[in-house]
C-alpha cells in the first residue's frame, strides 16, 4: 500500500514543474533575481536614467520594492517551506504556488510602467500576502500547532503596512511613508530575530558538532518583547522629545538584549564555516541598527533613513543571502557544501551593508560614490546566488524525494 502511495506521489510530483514544487524554489530565485534588477534600476535612476516612467516618487519605489517586493518574497518562500517541517503536512505546491508567486510578480513588473498610484498595481500587491497567510494558517490550524500560527497574523500586519505605504504615496505624505517603511524594516528585523533564534543556534550546533545552547527564558522575552514593542512604538508614538527619548531607550535595551543573545550562540566556532559566520555577522547588524535608530531619534548626527539601512542593507541583505544559500541546499537534497563564488557573494553582501551604513557617517562627502559601490556589491552578491543556484532551484531534488 505504502509503495503504491509513494509511486502515486512521485507521479503527481513529476507532473509539477520543479520550480513550483515547494515555496522556497520560486520565491528564493524570484526574490533574488528581482533584488538584482531593482537595485540595478535604482542605481541607474539615481544617475538620471528615465527607467521608471510610471513612478512619481523613485525614493518611495526603492524603499517599497526592497521591503515588500524582495524582503517579503524571501520570507514567504521561507515560511511556506518551513511550515511543512513544523506541521508534517505537505507544503503548498503546483498551481496554488504558481498563482501566489504570479500575484507577487505582477505588481513588481507593472509598477515601473504604471506607477505606485495605479489601482490595479495596489490591489494585486495587497492580495498576495493575505493569500500566503491563508495557506500558512491552514496546516497550523489542522494540527493545532498554535506556536507557529503567529506568522499568519504577522503577514496581515505587513499587508496593513503595505497599504499604509500606498496611502502615504497617494496623499504625498512622505513623513508617513518614511515612518511606515521604517516600521516595516523593524518588523522584518524582529522576524529575523524570531527565526534566527530558532535556526542560527541549531545550524551552529549541527555544523560544529556541539550542543545547542539552551535559550534563557528571560533573555528571550526581553530581546523579542523589546524589539516588537519598539516596532509598534515607532509606528504609533507621537514625535515629541519625551516619546523620542523613551523610544530611544527601548531601542537601546533591545540592542543590548540582542547582542547578549547573539554572544551565547558559539560565534567563535563559526570561523572557517561560511554558511554559519554569514548568519552570525548578519544578525550582528540588528543590534547595530537598533542603536543607530536610537541615535537618529535623539538627532545624534544620523538620519532615520541612514539608520534604517543598518537593518535593510545590513541585516536583511546578509541574513537572507545566508539563509537562502543554506535552505536551498538542504531542501533540494544536496550536501551543505558551498561553491567558492558563494563565499565571495557573502563577503560582497556584507560589504554592501557596511559601505551603505558606515561610509556616509565617516565621509558624508562621498554619498553618491557610496550609493554606487553599495548597489554594485549588492547586485554582484545576489547575481552570484542566482548564477549558482539557478540549476539547484529549477531542477528536481538531487535525492529523488518530493519537494
From TrEMBL:
The keyword Secreted does not apply. Keywords: Membrane, Transmembrane, Transmembrane helix. The chain crosses the membrane at residues 22-46, 66-83, 95-111, 117-137, 149-169, 181-200, 221-237, 243-263, 275-298, 310-329, 341-363, 369-390. Pfam families: NnrS. It comes from the Bacteria. This is Uncharacterized protein involved in response to NO.
